[in-house]
Automatic annotation (TrEMBL):
<feature type="active site" description="Proton donor/acceptor">
    <location>
        <position position="160"/>
    </location>
</feature>
<keyword id="KW-0961">Cell wall biogenesis/degradation</keyword>
<protein>
    <recommendedName>
        <fullName>D-alanyl-D-alanine dipeptidase</fullName>
        <ecNumber>3.4.13.22</ecNumber>
    </recommendedName>
</protein>
<dbReference type="GO" id="GO:0008270">
    <property type="term" value="F:zinc ion binding"/>
</dbReference>
<dbReference type="GO" id="GO:0006508">
    <property type="term" value="P:proteolysis"/>
</dbReference>
<comment type="similarity">
    <text>Belongs to the peptidase M15D family.</text>
</comment>
<feature type="binding site">
    <location>
        <position position="163"/>
    </location>
    <ligand>
        <name>Zn(2+)</name>
    </ligand>
</feature>
<keyword id="KW-0645">Protease</keyword>
<keyword id="KW-0479">Metal-binding</keyword>
<dbReference type="GO" id="GO:0160237">
    <property type="term" value="F:D-Ala-D-Ala dipeptidase activity"/>
</dbReference>
<feature type="binding site">
    <location>
        <position position="102"/>
    </location>
    <ligand>
        <name>Zn(2+)</name>
    </ligand>
</feature>
<keyword id="KW-0862">Zinc</keyword>
<dbReference type="GO" id="GO:0008237">
    <property type="term" value="F:metallopeptidase activity"/>
</dbReference>
<dbReference type="Pfam" id="PF01427">
    <property type="entry name" value="Peptidase_M15"/>
</dbReference>
<feature type="site" description="Transition state stabilizer">
    <location>
        <position position="68"/>
    </location>
</feature>
<feature type="binding site">
    <location>
        <position position="95"/>
    </location>
    <ligand>
        <name>Zn(2+)</name>
    </ligand>
</feature>
<keyword id="KW-0482">Metalloprotease</keyword>
Length: 191
């Protein structure tokens, strides 16, 4: 049993699109053995607030990632050791604490994702909050996401429009491995 809260589409009224369980991520291969989303109970509570705020605007949260086991953080870091976009696992990622979520907004009626100017995990300056090279619509959509998430109690990471984390996560939550969290997201080691 996990010490984290599982985020499901039915229980949280979100769309799950866990990209690290597919090859459609910047590594080009699955990082997780199965698609699942977990958050620390504090983060799950803040996500519920964000879901409600988005729904009042006719929007739905589209989640790309939540808890990221420490083993997965090492895989990402070893692939692309760029601290501008990937947390150094020695420092600890808020994702590996269950205290961060990667997401975007979608129209609640159609499911169409709002234009954010870049895709998820676009590891370029165009992904920074406040990037002005984007269309006015994309900038407005980013500000809308930023407003919803900050009003719900989340802090943002300035280099990634999709990344939100609980305030002072590194001071409040421990880094967890897949085994310690009980999430069974990583492949079993070969014997």
């Amino acid at each position: 049993m996990s010490i984290l809260t599982e985020i499901t589409e039915a229980d949280f009224n979100v769309t799950l699109d866990i990209v690290y369980a597919t090859s459609a991520n910047f590594t080009g291969q699955p990082v997780y053995a199965r698609a699942a989303c977990y958050l620390h109970p504090d983060a799950a509570a803040a996500l519920r607030v964000a879901v409600d705020l988005a729904a009042r605007q006719g929007l739905r949260l589209h989640v790309f990632d939540g808890f990221r086991p420490s083993e997965a953080q090492w895989l990402l870091w070893n692939h692309t050791p760029d601290p501008t976009f990937i947390s150094d696992p020695r420092r600890g990622s808020p994702h590996s604490m269950g205290a961060a979520v990667d997401l975007t907004l979608a129209d609640a009626a159609t499911g169409a994702r709002l234009d954010m100017g870049t895709g998820f995990d676009d590891l370029t300056p165009a992904s920074h909050h406040g990037a002005t090279t984007l269309s006015a619509e994309a900038q407005r959509n980013r500000f809308l996401l930023l407003g919803i998430m900050t009003a719900a109690g989340w802090d943002f990471y300035r280099n990634e429009w999709w990344h939100y984390q609980l305030f002072k996560a590194r001071e409040r939550y421990p880094v967890l491995s897949d085994g310690a969290a009980g999430t069974k997201m990583m492949a079993e080691p070969a014997s």
